[in-house]
Amino acid sequence: MAIAPRCVGPRDATRMYGVDGFDDEADARDYDPWEHAAGLGIPIIFRDDLPDPAMVACYSHVHRAMFVRTGLLTSVERCAIAHEIVHFEHGDLGAGAHEEDRADRLAARRLIRPRRLRELATVTDDPAVVALELGVTERTMRTYLRTHCDTDTGRVKSGPAIRQAGTIAS
Ligand SMILES: [Zn+2]
Fold first, then answer.
1. Is beta strand 2-3 parallel, antiparallel or unpaired with respect to 44-46?
2. Could you tell me the superkingdom of the organism this chain comes from (predicted)?
């Protein structure tokens, strides 16, 4: 068991998107799940003996800690920590699909800003490329498009049109 060596200094006074609201102004910083976890005082414990071999991270409300598999891609780790933070905030005890769905939706909303989508819209409308550029997993991108995207027009609310999530490989 090892505590994350990441060093987080005094909290930056600048607003962070997704923590200090969802006001998507230019002066807000992008969401940083590691800093958010540190700010909330949640220990991130890296270990490989998680309850399920397919699991990349989990939250234990008994320990008020999250456990994250080692050696993950940065995008996978970012999304996992953002997801586990939502479980922490709600004191989730693994009660089922609604908790997972809520954690996925809020993590995606924090990690993906309409402002960044607009910037990338000049480059690509391919959601897989957008996910790569944003440093999020394709699963998180799919969640965002499913929950924040008009299914008829493909237009993200207050953002650009992006091809439907079905084009992303599972
Ligand atoms: Zn979960």
1. antiparallel
2. Bacteria
> What is the 80 CA–ligand 1 centroid distance (Å)?
8
The pTM assigned to this predicted structure is 0.84
Question: Residues with Cβ within 5 Å of ion ligand 1?
Answer: 100, 103
Place of tokens 């409300």: 61
What domains, with CATH codes, occur in the chain?
1-111 (3.30.2010), 113-170 (no CATH)
Residue 141 pLDDT greater than 80, yes or no: yes
At which residue do the structure tokens 């005094």 appear? Answer: 10
Are 17 and 62 spatial neighbours (Cβ–Cβ below 8 Å)? Answer: no
Contacts of 47 (CB under 8 A, 6+ apart): 1, 2, 67, 68, 69, 70
**41 alpha-carbon distance from chain centroid:** 18
The alpha carbon of 102 and the centre of ligand 1 are apart by a number of angstroms equal to 9
Distance 63 CA to ligand 1 centre (A): 16
